[in-house]
Amino acid sequence: MLRSIQRHPLRPGACLVVLALAACEGRNRSEEARESAAATDTAMAPAVPNDTAAGNEQLSDANIVALLDEANMADSAAGAAAVAKATSKGVKDFARLMMSEHHALRKAGQQLAKQLKVTPELPGSDPLKPLAEGEMKTLESTPKGPEFDRAYIEQEVAVHKAVLDLANKAHDQADNEQLKALIEKAKPVIQKHLDQAEALQDKLGEATT
Length: 209
Hints:
Layout: H1 12-44, H2 53-56, H3 61-85, H4 89-116, H5 129-141, H6 146-173, H7 177-204
Helix pairs in contact: 3-4, 3-5, 3-6, 4-7, 5-6, 6-7
């Protein structure tokens, strides 16, 4: 004769213990999953660069003279490269203007530095050097044609925005009033160049390189 199997239901107190243990285990697994996901997101997230030293660095008159000279020299050189490779008449005319007006700005800065007996000295962190080098690298590597025209103008928009920001900072930090006045005269010229470059960019479209 088969013996009947008796079921022993869990007491209410035991049920609560089991449910509590299950809930704790579920929370632990959820927390582990969240921590793992957070660690993965942190590892995959792009590094956010800190402000450059140049952005926080107080500029002396010697620094300002050196940076403005560098900016004018670089844009004159980029203009010369663009005149040789550009195919659009508007871009060629713009490049010639960059050569002419940045050469004039550079000459005025050099004359003032000589008059004030200020020896140009670049700051510890040069914000313009990577921009100038990047522009020339782009101009040298992009073949002649419409794509070159777009690439040159795109670079000029970026460079003139940076130079205009630098001019505003330099004007605020310059000690010599004559240097402040020179920067004040240069700023509308830089703004004009930026406006012209942006107008050409709208016309040509953005570069794909």
